[in-house]
Automatic annotation (TrEMBL):
Its main location: cytoplasm. This is Ras association domain family member 1. GO terms for molecular function: zinc ion binding. Residues 124-218 form the Ras-associating domain. InterPro entries: RA_dom, RASSF1-6, SARAH_dom, Ubiquitin-like_domsf. Transmembrane segments: none annotated. The lineage of its organism: Eukaryota, Metazoa, Chordata, Craniata, Vertebrata. PROSITE patterns: RA, SARAH. It comes from the Eukaryota. One of its GO terms (biological process) is Ras protein signal transduction. It is found in: Cytoplasm, Cytoskeleton. GO terms for cellular component: microtubule; nucleus. It comes from Cyprinus carpio (Common carp). Residues 220-267 form the SARAH domain. Pfam families: Nore1-SARAH (PF16517), RA (PF00788).
Amino acid sequence: MMRDCERFEMTWGSSASSGYCSQSDSEHELEQFYTARTSFRKTKKRKEKDELVDWRKPELSVSETQQKVKEYNAQVNSNLFMVLNRDGSYTGFIKVQFKLARPVSLPPPQITSSSSGRDGGCREHKALKRGTSFYLPRDTVKHLHISSSTRAKEVIQALLKKFTVVDNPAKFSLFERSERQNQVYLRKLADDERPLFLRLCAGPNEKVLSLVLKENETGEVNWDAFSFPELQNFLRILQREEEDHVRQIVRRFALARDKMKEALENFSTPG
């Protein structure tokens, strides 16, 4: 069984730079989306506005880092402290919330017993090749112990590995979430951003900054980065979603038509 807080050694690397689409959340709060390229799109009631945001935080000197770590640990109400190393680097914990709209894929189960006969062997081989897809609970949370040099793309890979998810890491992105003046802001982290540095600068308050794992937006997808079976699976998912959406529209218009017909039947002309 996995523990909430597990150490993550920085041994992963990734050249993935593409993503996979997801349906947007139907939350009632205002969300402002912007990327690490200093622009964001503000969405509320289908209104959009482009602005420039300076997301970059200045690097800290060794003395500033020491002071920040000291201030951070003074505000922590648990044992999830940051530890400063002699070389000026530091380690600590980050908490990531999963907000995934689509199912994730698990590896096929390991079957140790072998069936006798040629046909039995074929059946076992096919069973081993089939994976499992399921929806992660909406508010799943995971703690990772990382260092100040750990990049966002490495965090994504570590999170998927913790849950034995075999999906391409390029489908997902790490987002910075903050609350200001009753508004919620989401910013997609660049692959080379360092989440623990952001955590240190923001302090331990989750309203000031929290980290969220989500699927990428449709326009950011580089489909050439995926394998043939993955693309086939995407097409099947999109077809099911399209059919479901069409059924919902047909039902809505049929209901409106029935109500109008009912109103016409109850309508009486004078005389």
